[in-house]
Design brief:
The protein is an all-beta fold. The protein has strands at 23-32, 44-51, 58-63, 76-83, 89-93. The protein binds zinc ion.
């Protein structure tokens, strides 16, 4: 669940955080060309990344370290240590 919550929104059960590898694939994405925030240069990629740990385990993120036009659905990505604008997770192309 992202952002993190103490309880399941479906059944109310308590939730605990578990570490993940930071490896995943781009589930879907869009390339934003509109400068909503003048501090973030356009174009940039907004994506839903599915983590390798579990089918359906997805997180909203930005894709960095590559040309926006090179991003594809299914592309292998890995987490970057820094956070993006507003604390968004940043993923980039996975090392091959
Ligand atoms: Zn539940």
């Amino acid at each position: 669940m992202h952002p993190a919550a103490a309880q399941c929104r479906d059944c109310g059960s308590p939730l605990v955080a578990r570490p993940v590898s930071g490896q995943g694939t781009v589930f879907t994405y869009t390339v934003n060309h509109h400068p909503y925030n003048p501090e973030i240069p356009v174009p940039y990629v907004i994506a839903i990344v599915e983590l390798v740990e579990q089918s359906g385990l997805r997180v909203a993120a930005n894709i960095v370290d590559c040309e926006p036009d090179s991003v594809t659905s299914g592309m292998a990505v890995s987490i970057r240590p820094e956070k993006g604008a507003g604390g968004a997770p940043l993923f980039g192309p996975a090392a091959s």
